Amino acid sequence: MNSLFSVPAPIRAHVTNLEHRWQGSAAQRFWQLWLAELRGCVPAGLRQRFSAQTPVQIHRWPITAPLPVAPAGVRHVLLLPAASVMVHRLQLPVAAARDLNAVLGYELDKYTPYPRDQLCYVVREDGRSAGGLQITLIAIVRERLQQILADCAAHGLTLQGVDVCADDGTPWGVDLLPESARPVNRRAGVDRRRLLAGLCAVLLVTLMVLWLNDRQQRLQGMRATVQSQKGEVAALQSLRQQLTNSLGAAQYLTRHKAARPGMAALLSELTACLPDDTWLEQLEIDAGDVSFSGQSVRASALIGLLKDCHSLENPQFQGVIQPDADSGKDRFSLHARLHQEAADAPNPDTP
Q1: What distance in Å separates the CA atoms of residue 174 and residue 139, rounded to the nearest whole number?
Q2: CATH code (residue 161)
Q3: Most exposed: 77, 180, 220, 226, by fewest CB within 10 Å?
Q4: Are 346 and 340 in contact (CB under 8 A)?
């Protein structure tokens, strides 16, 4: 096989271990039964047309000549009788399931009279319980197996698998054929390379699609963030404008209030400007206009006296002056404007 597609030794050993654990396991038997049920549901024509399985021809040991002529592409499997192999039923801790072949490989001398390098063996997992793993150890002497393979080769038989059958003739679904004796399937290697190349292409396209999707999601998230920030900026500008308007209105009211004389100052000034023989009956201040009425001994002289009031401008009589029969004084009604000062003008009440 091309070195570009060579598999590292640790991975190859791990795959081999998985294959050994798969051979003869309960999961494999369930898989085969399930596939058989599925094939039975498919019409015979379609089953023959689309079936991808290689036909298998079973040969029982010992080989008797002549062998039947098999079509090309048939997988030849040899069935050994159970008496020709060593079989042990064992129970191991569940933790041993990680690498059954390695665990039993170090303890083969406990169950067989041969060391590990003189045996070919497989381990089949039969089930699990609270007590641990129920496994079956199937072993055969390597020299004996090599003689069997040489016998088969002498009959022109190239084996792709060596299985063991029970007393009732049922195969156990294991493979005792060593890795070195298995034929190299170049087409399978080519198919694996094609499959690997196709898988790499699919993964590359998937990676590009995921990367583009991630970029699109990031872009949409950034756009949403920008829109949210624009809304916050608009709300901040609106709030700033409202604050500016409120501040301008407050400053206007402050200037307007500072430009108008206070009520206490106005009353004090009116008291000083009006003579002692004059009193007020009504005083109204509305939007810069001052109206007041009352009685005075010399009502006609009030206009001249009010001109000395700093807070009043343009005093004028409203109506005519009328004498009051009860008090003997003149009844009058006056109107004036409040004196407006600039907002930055000094306040006379300020010390």
Answers
A1: 11
A2: 3.30.420
A3: 180
A4: no
